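Open question from group meeting: does this chain pack into something compact, or does most of it stay loose? Before anyone orders reagents, we agreed to write out a predicted structure and look at it together. Recording both the input and the output here so the notebook holds the full record.
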Amino acid sequence: MAVAKTLGLETEYGIVHRGRPEPNPITASSLLINAYLNRHGYETGARSESILWDFIDETPGVDARGFSPVGSMAPQVETHLVNAVLRNGARYYVDHAHPEMSTPECADPLSVVRYDRAGELIVQASVEAANELLPDGEELILYKNNSDGKGNSYGTHENYLVDRSTPFGQLVRHCTSHFITRQIFTGAGKVGSELPGQRTDEVDFQLTQRADFFEEEVGLETTLKRPIINTRDEPHADARRYRRLHVIVGDANLSQVATFLKVGTTTLVLAMIEDDAIDTVFEFDAPVAAIRQVSHDLQLCEPLLLTDGSTITALAVQWELLRMATRYVERCGTDNVGGPAAIDVLHRWEQVLHGLETNPLTLANQLDWVAKYRLLSAYRERHDLPWNDDRLRVMDIQYSDMRPDRGLAWRVGLEQLVSDEDARTATEEPPADTRAYFRGRCIREFPDQIVAANWDSMVFDTGSDSLRRVPMMEPMRGTAAHLATLFDNCDDAAELLRRLGALPTMGE
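Structure tokens returned:
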């Protein structure tokens, strides 16, 4: 049986330091995050510093295939940059030249949407706090997108817990077709192309921002030679039982519906792979070419060549995956794929595919690429502009502007699945149904006694001769159901750890 899915997103934001003669994105990102930490009380207590991220379990160079091809380069771990753990269990840090927000571990797709939106609110609050510190004439501006229009791309990564016993080759075989074709509802939309060697006027508008930047089918890297299937084997959990599928192929979405479907459909596909419930296999003859074909196909009718010589459209693949997922849920239930939210995923999946098949513009309030296409098409026709006009490229980027009064995505009527009130609560409160509850609650209750934290452990200083590391190797343990009463009855971390010692540890 498929393991219960733990899910999460990592979003790198584009950052601009306007008004500064020689802007440094790393410095700007550090200023941004530190401004938020200072304003929201993260520099409190005896140590007078925010809780540190513990890098002891970071192993980005371990390859799921058991080897690393000659010339491959694992992502660098930058331990010297700002790296904070938040009270909602999230991680907020500087990754290379970008501020990055990683949601806490979530147990269902709607929870991912909630904490992704909470991340947006945190980012907006960070900008406000940072800009108050800058001289007149300077400001920080953030963009939730994946391309700066100058050939540079930054990532929005997804994470899914899967059963270690499932052969990695099976994940590659079945996930590749899903990642190539799900672009029809996950794409954020993009004017033109940044594919090397392609003229800017060859592609008017495409579904996704990331398709231009993928060069390999399978690989370890994330910034060069980007692969459709990433092989990083860093489970952040019990490595004997679990694997974390690290997905780098998706777009950053401002549409909550697109985020919900991106995470929800992938959760179902992974569970079907684990339970050997995929009865129709789609293997593309040239996956890298196919991912670009789909992105460039606004009519959603491009035939994609399979290895057996037949062809199929992206829309047809998604209909087949929906058919299999519906049957899977009917047979196996929803306990391991997000509970009741999985039923909502199936209903929304069907509704969106039907809209894409009949009239995509009816989905302008649900999908980013459709909303952006409708907005830009109207402006282009009104002013009689070619698609490669600079004004449209500016609007493309402005769609993802995180300033509520400037970003175009905030004005196009995108449907909200999570209220802003609920998301604001999630900026401070962790999910109750994953180990993020333990992490977040400890940071809230005992910040002076926490030295460091990461995804699968926390380090406490309770005043004894040695520090105490608490493992959290099971992502579905350490929840409110397990520990809320215990927290309510402990005055400090020493008492918490003493009473936890009488319970099964979260690593067992």
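Observations to bring back to the group:
The chain has a mean pLDDT of 92.
The domain at 7-418 is CATH 3.30.590 (Creatine Kinase; Chain A, domain 2).
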